[in-house]
Amino acid sequence: xxxxxxxxxxxxxxxxxxxxxxxxxxxxxxxxxxxxxxxxxxxxxxxxxxxxxxxxxxxxxxxxxxxxxxxxxxxxxxxxxxxxxxxxxxxxxxxxxxxxxxxxxxxxxxxxxxxxxxxxxx
Length: 122
Hints:
Layout: H1 8-24, E1 30-32, E2 38-40, E3 43-50, E4 61-69, E5 73-82, E6 85-95, E7 97-99, E8 105-107, H2 112-118
Antiparallel strand pairs: 1-2, 2-7, 3-6, 4-5, 5-6, 7-8
């Protein structure tokens, strides 16, 4: 009612930034494998801290980077700016998993070709 952007939107924007980042590496949030399974990246945690409100029609800039690449997971940091002022910052952790046709997930070590791309190697 007050025109302030609902907090849940920040989580949507964080997820969109993650998808765009993976696409920029030639990857996908769900990469199909020859055996009919998918390599996927479900979130295991997410948080966001708010410093200033946004209102509808505000234009924002989102900064996205990797905080940590673990054995089976990646942790991302996301910062939101309006006219150079930090308005929120968050993080999310995604586990690398095999997604089976029956819907079951199995966490796996990040495949070498994914790790290489995530680490910025060519």
